[in-house]
Amino acid sequence: MNEPAAAVGRTRVRRDILAPWPSQAMLGLLDRDPDGIGEGDPLPLGWHWLYFNEPLRASRLGADGHEERGAFMPAVDLPRRMWAGGQLRSLGPIRLGSPAELRSGIHSVNEKRGRSGRLVFVTLEHMVFQDGHQCLHEKQVIVYTGSQPSAPPQPPAPRGHAPAPESARTFLPTVTTLFQFSALTYNPHRIHYDHPYVTAQEGYPGLLVHGPLTALLLLDAAARHAPAPPAHFRYRALAPLYADEPITLAGRAEPSPAGRIVEARGPAGNVAMRGWVAWRSR
After folding, report:
1. DSSP 48
2. Longest Cα–Cα distance in the chain
3. Domain range for residue 40?
4. Which spans in the chain are helix H?
5. In principle, which of 24, 133, 158, 186 could form an S-S bond with 34, CB 3.0–4.6 Å?
6. 195: number of CA atoms within 13 Å, CB side?
7. Helix (H, G, I), strand (E, B) or coil at 187
8. Do 125 and 103 form a contact (C-beta atoms < 8 A)?
9. 160-201, pLDDT tens digit by residue?
């Protein structure tokens, strides 16, 4: 068995006291009143990404800024890493101001060949517990590639009629936005803040918007006019988004069997991320 596949089953546990400040800072990033959330309030779906971050020694960082591979993530020998998609399922409220525990594991490691060459997909499984109860289940897919593709490699999306959006709004991710989100999530990946690196080393035309930031923008847009917080969210990254280029967040009028479809679109109208949001049935 090669080393990346041998990482399947590897686990890690992180604990945190969910202070309101990171969530309040996230509201500020969204240009909303930071005092709109506080101790005792439920954490919006996906906002656990702001927590459970542990400090790393500088000597343990790889060339791309991430934690060196082999400690927890598999030692994949491909240079580029992208957040390809995932799904989130709420099992109960996660309350701010209380301790919580994140249990993570390497669920699978799959190697494939695509048009851009060799690809390695790593699926992570995360569970959040609070007061002895599981509150969240997540699967997250990371893809490693040797060449710079135009989009994270994905199976083709199902074909079908794409109706006009029911609603849409625009969000402009500035360089400051990316800096703030990197700081809030303790994300040292250089593609989000190091312009010479991302253009010269990874071949992108500019700084990339974080995949989880785009996912949170979609969830926030879906929740704004919903009667209840989202309970399930599945999403796929389809193309990059860049700093200082507006993102259109659109919701389709016709729901799919998997939930209401929400999309993040680039300036040219291309779908960069597609998500499916469902609410808990009453």
Report:
1. G
2. 52
3. 3-278
4. 3-6, 20-29, 175-184, 195-196, 211-223
5. 24
6. 7
7. coil
8. no
9. 444 445 678 999 999 999 999 999 999 999 999 999 999 998
The token pair at 213 is: 């930031």
Rounded CA gap, 135 and 98, in Å? 13
CA distances 7 to 1, 4, 25, 106, 245, Å, are 10, 5, 35, 7, 38
State the amino acid at position 280 in one-letter form.
Answer: R
Q: Phi-psi category of 18—alpha, beta or left, where left has phi over 0 and alpha has psi -120 to 50?
A: beta
Average pLDDT, integer, range 228-233: 92
Give the span between the Cα atoms of 72 and 11, in whole angstroms.
Answer: 8
Give me the residue label for tokens 């917080």. Answer: 229
Q: What is the pLDDT of residue 147?
A: 62
Looking at the structure of the chain, the number of domains it has is 1
Q: Please report, for the domain that includes residue 154, its CATH number.
A: 3.10.129.10
Beta bridge partners of 70: none
Residue 27 vs residues 116, 121, 240: alpha-carbon distances, Å: 38, 32, 24
| Cβ(230)–Cβ(222) below 8 Å | yes
Residues 277, 256: Cα–Cα separation, whole Å = 10
Extract the runs of DSSP E, i.e. beta strands, from the chain: 11-17, 80-90, 99-114, 117-130, 133-145, 165-171, 232-237, 247-252, 260-265, 271-278
The lowest-confidence range among 29-33, 255-259, 264-268 is 255-259
Average pLDDT of the residues of the chain? 89
For the stretch 65-74, contacts whose Cβ atoms lie closer than 8 Å and that sit 24 or more positions apart, written own/partner, are 65/188, 65/189, 65/190, 65/194, 66/188, 66/189, 70/3, 72/10, 72/12, 72/104, 72/106, 73/7, 73/106, 73/122, 73/142, 74/3, 74/4, 74/5, 74/6, 74/7, 74/106, 74/109, 74/120, 74/122
> For the whole model, what pTM was predicted?
0.89
Counting every residue written for the chain, the total comes to: 282
